[in-house]
Automatic annotation (TrEMBL):
Domain called Ras-GEF: residue spans: 1-188
Matches recorded under SMART domains: PH, RasGEF
Stretches assigned to the PH domain: 358-470
Biased composition regions of type Low complexity, renumbered to the chain: 288-304
Spans annotated as Disordered: 185-238, 280-307
Ranges annotated as spanning the membrane: none
Gene name per UniProt: Ralgps1_0
Protein name: RGPS1 factor
Length: 484
């Protein structure tokens, strides 16, 4: 659906027709919202957010104020912020009203549960895993029972929509063609490059777009909630087909093995006959530019995407993606490891993702100091960091602003790093705040409280920090006995 939206807008012959088509899709999105077809709504809105459409400044300028306000409201409802909190609240408020939910929410939930509570393959599963899985299945079942629409079937329309098909493996090439056509329609001032979403657009093109500076106006219709002002640097991600399924495609590079009875690993498949391919063993040079376990590609491809999604704080993304199938992002412009970055912003984007080792888990956390060298601090306040656990080393990246929510909003170099070997981590016993956990260095008398945003994220950090704290514990004990 997203590719169809992009294609129809780009193939309009004149600027006026293109603006009319864009306006028509905004009206279509509003109608989908009124019908509570949220899955199709996400695809249409994300297609309008994609880079080939978002950068068409002249086209957006011809839209009426009413259409712009409507699109702002739909963006607000479908935002990824706080793990789709607004969309979840809206779905829960519908009760028995017919609704087709955005399925990516539940796919993400199931995947995170499977990572936090891996399946053992035995009859006796973890009670927490079973309860969480059953809760999601119950929600989906309730939505299925209430999903009854009385809409007349138009065969010619159905035939046309079914004729719009795209081969998933060729997605990258479709994106490249769309972006080239967009550049042909409205040439950009910067060096042409393929961009999949409007987050990939940097420099003057984004600044010149009416979408980045437009004000929030009141939209017609009581169904659309008011939109609070949002900073320009918090633009939501663009859309690809995979967006509608709740995960992102990445480069097909060697990833960590994922063992799960819920999401079996089928391995990489051939593009033509879909046969399982033999695993590729990278050479030493290739291994240096392989994918970190956070799922970020650190290589030399110009087509590489270095953007992070932090709606859920990042964790073992490579395992997540590998469990859902092989990635299909294909590099377009080849090797550029020896070339200089085209801009300081591009260099900064690359720098913020360079870690000294394989990242086990990373994301935004708030920290408060409880004890420092055995003494309670005079003033204890919450401080926001981007934390990355690399083996047994915990790296702190300070925030650039108070509203930092994404990786690019934090500094590229760590402000401090500590070894957590021999430390103790435990979940805080606070029913009102289930997203808290404690990290204590008993040897030095330091204790910290962390807030992860929700209980599931806290459990993920607890799981990985526990493993890091217990590694090489015998060496720590031996070292302690030597001191004694």
């Amino acid at each position: 659906v997203s590719f169809w939206v992009v294609r129809e807008i780009l193939h309009a012959q004149t600027l006026k027709i293109r603006a009319e088509v864009l306006s028509h899709y905004i009206k279509t999105a509003k109608k989908l919202y009124e019908l509570n077809n949220l899955h199709a709504l996400m695809a249409v809105v994300s297609g309008l957010q994609s880079a080939p459409i978002f950068r068409l400044t002249k086209t957006w300028a011809l839209l009426s104020r009413k259409d712009k306000a409507t699109f702002d409201k739909l963006e607000y409802v479908m935002s990824k912020e706080d793990n789709y909190k607004r969309l979840r609240d809206y779905i829960s408020s519908l009760k028995m009203t017919p609704c087709i939910p955005y399925l990516g929410i539940y796919l993400s939930d199931l995947t995170y549960i499977d990572s936090a509570y891996p399946s053992t393959g035995s009859i006796l599963e973890s009670e927490q895993r079973t309860n969480l899985m059953n809760n999601i299945l119950r929600i989906i079942s309730d939505l299925q029972q209430s999903c009854e629409y009385d809409i007349p079937l138009l065969p010619h329309v159905q035939k046309y929509l079914n004729s719009v098909q795209y081969i998933e493996e060729l997605q990258k090439f479709v994106e490249d063609d769309n972006y080239k056509l967009s550049l042909k329609i409205e040439p950009g001032t910067s060096t042409p490059h393929s961009a999949a979403s409007r987050e990939d657009l940097v420099g003057s093109e984004v600044g010149a777009s009416p979408q980045s500076g437009r004000k929030n106006a009141a939209a017609e219709g009581a169904l659309l909630p008011p939109t609070p002002p949002s900073p320009r640097n918090l633009i939501p991600h663009g859309h690809r087909k995979c967006h509608s399924l709740g995960y992102n495609f990445i480069h097909k590079i060697n990833t960590a093995e994922f063992k799960s009875a819920t999401f079996p690993n089928a391995g990489s498949r051939h593009l033509l006959d879909d046969s399982v391919m033999e695993p590729h063993v990278p050479s030493r040079g290739q291994a240096e530019s392989s994918t970190l376990s956070s799922g970020i590609s650190i290589g030399s491809s110009d087509g590489s995407e270095l953007s992070e999604e932090t709606s859920w704080p990042a964790f073992e993304r490579s395992r997540l993606y590998h469990s859902l199938g092989p990635g299909t992002r294909v590099s377009r412009n080849g090797y550029r490891g020896h070339m200089k970055a085209s801009s300081s912003l591009e260099s900064e984007d690359l720098a913020v993702h360079l870690y000294p080792g394989a990242v086990t888990i990373q994301g935004v956390l708030r920290r408060k100091t409880l004890l420092k060298e055995g003494k309670k601090p005079t003033v204890a306040s919450w401080t926001k960091y981007w934390l990355a656990l690399c083996g047994t080393q915990l790296f702190y990246y300070a925030a650039k602003s108070l509203k930092a929510t994404e990786r690019k909003h934090f500094k590229s170099t760590p402000s401090k790093n500590v070894s957590v070997v021999g430390w103790m981590v435990m979940m805080a016993d606070d029913p009102e705040h289930p997203d808290l956990f404690l990290l204590t260095d008993s040897e030095r008398g330091n204790s910290y409280k962390f807030q992860a945003g929700n209980r599931m994220n806290a459990m993920l950090w607890f799981k990985h920090l526990s493993a890091a704290c217990q590694s090489n514990r015998q060496q720590v004990r031996a070292r302690y006995q030597e001191r004694v």
